[in-house]
Amino acid sequence: MKTPRFTINTLKFKITFCLIFTLSIFMVSFRILPSDVPKISLDGYKVEDGFELKVISSEPFLKAPVSMDFDNKGRMWVVEMIGYMPNLEGIGEEVPNGRITILEDWNKDGVTDHSKVFLDKLVLPRGLAHVYGGLLYVDGPKLWFVEIKNDKPGKKTLVDPVYAEGGNVEHSSNGLMMNIDNWIYNANYNFRYQLKNGKWIKEPTSYRGQWGITKDNFGRLYYNNNSTQLQGDYVLPNKAIRNRYFKPSTAENQRLTNNRVFPIQQTSVNRGYQKGVLDEKGLLKDVTAACGPLVYRGGAFPASYNQNAFVCVPEVNLIKRNILTFKNTQTTATQAIEGKEFLTSTDEGFRPVNLFNGPDGAIYVVDMHRGIIQHKAYISQYLTEQLAAKKLDTLQNAGRILKITSKAVKTHPIPDLTKASTKELVALLSHSNGWIRDRSQQILIQKKDLIVVKELINLTKNSNEFATAIHALYVLEGLNALSFTTLSDVVNQSKQPETIAHALGLLERFASMPNVAKMKTTCTQLLAQNNEVIDLYLSMSLNAWLKLSEATFLPILTEIDKKYAAQKIYQEAIVSSLEGREENYLNAMNPNALLRSSLTVALNNRQKKEMNPIFVKEKNTVDNRTKGLQLYRTICATCHGADGKGIQDLAPPLKGSEYIDGSMRRLAAIILHGVSGPIQVNGKLYQLNNEMPALINNKEISDQDITDIIRFTQNAFAKEGKGISVDDVKKMRERKPDGNGIFNEKQLLETDFEK
């Protein structure tokens, strides 16, 4: 029987379609062939004795990585900030070319052999976090949460429209780290987040650091900024800031160590021309771009490395190691090996910007691997010239993920937590790897399986170095399965002060009149232990109880006040609990001088309605240097060029100009009053047909704006930057030139602007 033409054509179509579909799937799944992957040499890299360094992913699987996270299968998800400083002028950063990529190891050899894009067309993405079964990520200024369905984005929810406002990536929010207390914390932002009963909660927290954030097993937070390699809080987050009219100065934001760095080679650093930046050998003395701190909690290094603090120092291509020491109410850090860093490299393209504990216990290094890591708003003319001379500005489309493992201790098998039962997840709360404990805690909360409540309650009595009891407490909190009785038992029976500290904070939500007498008994028993940690957290955990009975609990604070009269951290803790009751305490309890002084500050601030800034600040504002860059590009670059090299027949260059390198007041006068040609710049005569317009009558441009413009031009185009103040600019408003009110060259050269 003859086959109908329709059937043959249909068959041909089906075969063709299947071939195309199969080919497309093949191309997506294996779009990068092994032969296309560059062989990365680590000959110039040296890691501390006893450790191994390995490249586990590189270009072309990823470009310009800045952060990462692991999903519940243990796969790496990487943020690629491809648009950052695409050239020395930083032009084109707004292009939506950032992405989030899933990296996989299909043949199980420990190296990426497959990647797929989960999200693309993002503007300068800088953070992500696997939370609540989905992905939290940053796109431009916005913070989003997206559901994950078969490795593809599902429903999106806008969590915060102003999360990363501020204009400059170096000074906008990042981090997105889930802490043991079930809150998500950030660097460079004064808010934390939590998804509760289907709604996103955003509430104030202390402002911390610049790029990267980490935690210890207890839940204290650590961070840093460019010139301070390691900072941290002495207390758990949000405990010392209960009083909105008092800002603690001891409990939080403490510098934990010095900023000395020990590079093995000369590198291009931003202000190397300034005295004291480099030593006699031309090596950087103190950090200038510290970022991406990590408290190691992986459980796969020798015991002496547990809770060491590692810090990225990308400007000199190295990673520091600090030994943290916890002494009751204070944390300090010291250089692990004097004069020697944990990881160094002679590769000036090595730019470690973030560090993470992995599900196998290794440290994962996010190496942005590019020449330019300084934003245009802050990059000096000195550094610009050095990068160009070395052609480091051409190193743009690379990126690495490195893995650090111990030779003496085996890494853990990478678990697939999507297949773990509820019972198995509870057992993993005692795992030596903090990543596994953290993620198991969160998955247990998401599963909402109340069958494990009894087992979790038993774990809250556990005392070990891995904070298992604390993890169990917060699983119960996430399951809404805590009670006053459970927490009281923990406080009264636990042998671990750190567990008691967390339980005391959780007890406040059960403050009620029927529980006042029991709580008073608990407080009396705790004070009798004479434990500094317990006393500190007790003093920070009475706010809700004081609202019920001042007569019962003010004496508790008084006893702590007297016991630690000379220790400011306890006085700050008491002021935190006493919000709104400062005057009552002053009148009734006769506080010591230190506490009296702090309470008076709080009362005065309340009277003046001056809150701790974290309760007032709604979003990050553009920093002055970035604002200067934005104003320059809006007002000045049209004529002088984005690169400051001038435009033929329109305006002279700023680079190399004696008007940029000379008097700052004269420069302010030029911007305010304008200038008419001809004019000589750097020995060349410019016959200008147009006058440089004056800004003095532009009501939208303030004296601060002009100060910001000058500070930017000084940093970007001057041989050596000079300072200028708003007062200097104000004075130049009155220095109007004779004649038509616009300066000419003769007037600029003959006027003494410093008088």
UniProtKB/TrEMBL annotation:
Protein name: Dehydrogenase
GO function terms (MF aspect): electron transfer activity; heme binding; metal ion binding
UniProt keyword annotation of Iron present: yes
Cytochrome c domain span: 623-717
The keyword Metal-binding appears for this protein: yes
Gene3D superfamilies noted in UniProt: Cytochrome c-like domain, Leucine-rich Repeat Variant, TolB, C-terminal domain
Keyword field: Heme, Iron, Metal-binding
Entries under SUPFAM superfamilies matching the protein: Calcium-dependent phosphotriesterase (SSF63829), Cytochrome c (SSF46626)
A Pfam family of this chain: Cytochrom_C
PROSITE patterns attached to this UniProt entry: CYTC
Transmembrane segments: none
